[in-house]
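I hope you will forgive my troubling you with a question about protein structure. You will find the record immediately after this paragraph.
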Amino acid sequence: MECHVYYEGDDDPDKCTARRLEKFDRAILHRSMRQVPYGVVLNPHAEQALSPADAEDGLGTLVALDCSWESAEEASFSMNGVHRALPFLVAANPINYGRPFQLTTVEALAGALRIFGEAEAAADLLEPFRWGETFLTLNEEPLDRYAACTDSSDIVAVQDDYLADE
């Protein structure tokens, strides 16, 4: 699955995971929203949770928005595609370690790939980050359970289990 990122450029360039993905040829960055191809758009404001059933809807394309959390408003996600929200996952990056839903761009893309059953692609995407493997280890159980789901309602049921324990 091809990973694309709409890059707003409003965060610290030294900590930007999207720029690092581009540097290591793991994702294609777009600086104009018009350039972003149709695909499954990871959108925290989406009404439906990402599930394995969405893998084919994006025609092999996964899209993320790279911006600071302060500017991640609903209007920022006005890209063409199938919009889906990631379920409960915990960040492993040094800035938001242990915080649920506070993922970097690479964590979001890798989480989506794992949900789609592409464990090797997820690990490859995270390889340039010293904490990348930690993300997969930290979220191993929920990612395995999400990947075994068939649709969004199953994902929400699994997520509810995790949120009830929080």
In short: The beta strands are 2-7, 28-30, 39-42, 61-66, 81-84. The chain has one domain: 2-165. The longest helix spans residues 152-165.
